[in-house]
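Hello again, I could really use a second opinion on something today. For a while now I've been wondering how a particular protein folds. Please have a think about how the structure follows from the sequence. Here's the protein in full, and shout if anything looks odd to you:

***
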Amino acid sequence: MRRLSLSSRLALLFAACTAVVSLFAGVLFSRASEGHFIELDQQLLDSKLIALRSALQGADDQARFSERTARLQDELSHQPDLSLRVSAADGSDWFDSSSALPADLPSEPGLHSLQSAGTAYRVYRAALQPDKPDSPQLTLMLDITHHQHFLQRMQRLIWLTVGLSALATALLGAWAARSGLRPLRRMSEVAASVSASSLTKRLPHDQLPAELAELAHTFNAMLERLDDSFQRLSAFSADIAHELRTPLSNLLTHTQVTLTRPRPLEDYREALHSNLEELQWMAQLVNDMLYLAKADHGLLIPKREPLELGDEADLLLEFFAPLAEETRISLTREGNASFAGDRSMLRRALSNLLDNALRFTPAGGEVRVRAVDQPKGLSLSIENSGSGIDPALLPRLFDRFYRADPARHEGSSEHAGLGLAITQSIIRAHGGQIHCESDKGWTRFVIELPKVD
């Protein structure tokens, strides 16, 4: 079954609300009109009852009543739609102003409604002399058929008004809903035209209503994120192909040259060793990419063990000390901080940062590691002296395969451009952040980690 459109649902909802409100108002008006007629009939019958009591004053028995019959009929002649029945205290009838009166009339005093032979009556029963218990009873019957006809016509008019109002509201509601939802249709058209090759399109939000403008802003932000992710993915794929092309070409060329003619066993051994180096670099590159893929899908779950970051930094500085001595680079560590994290993952991150710092520190420079323990977290920075990094390049340092130094050659696992991306993934897996600062001849990578209970 086809679902109703939003415009149709709104139109039906408007029609239903209008019908309910109109029906409620009509019922109230009908009840009010009926009550008003009852009040008017009560007033009329009360005035007639006073006049009849005056005309029949002293008629305690049937003989005296007969003497006043002419006066009684004269009084009734002024109200053609009023009929009267006079009965004794024992229930016997003394007088009927009309032969068409119903035989069974209410015996209880007060105002009643009665339907007989297609005619509607308002019946009012009262004693001729209220202060006497054996007083004759007067039963006044007012023909209210014209009242009922008016009420019936009014009820038909109410139902007609309800129907026409609901129909008119449904049509106007459908038109209003369709006009009001026109921006949504435009948004749908733009969204339908978005594809991998047209992620730069954006929804117009200048002239949209406030509710839809917020939706357009959210949708545009989503498109920007998708565009950025798609561009990064495209660049990542191109970088992978670019990185693998050189070692694969080296392997193919070297192998083809080796096989062009018979060679001594030592030449084949040397060719295999050369190929092995290329294959080891390619394997490391693939492992790094798999590591980043796990990080993208939230599969890097660090172990939590108590660590002294100062001690971990000392071990790494001791490892890099021989390399630093060759270029007369000073390695120092200041401060200490306790943290619960994955030892191997944090060592890998710090090792990447120290290796990066040593490669870009000039001979005779300095590399410093600083740890600061704070109440809500800790800060760990690795800084090195040197020429610094252009501020325009800082936002892209953690992109995969990005090289701030274009002079770095391809084909080396140390320069694949994945070290900082892996470091960032490790820090984020621990709930922290990392950023780079470069000014006044110093480049500083700052890691901020939260306290873990």
Q: What stands out?
A: The first helix runs from residue 6 to 55. The longest strand covers residues 119-127. Residues 292 and 422 are 6 Å apart (CA to CA). DSSP finds ten helices and twelve strands in the chain.
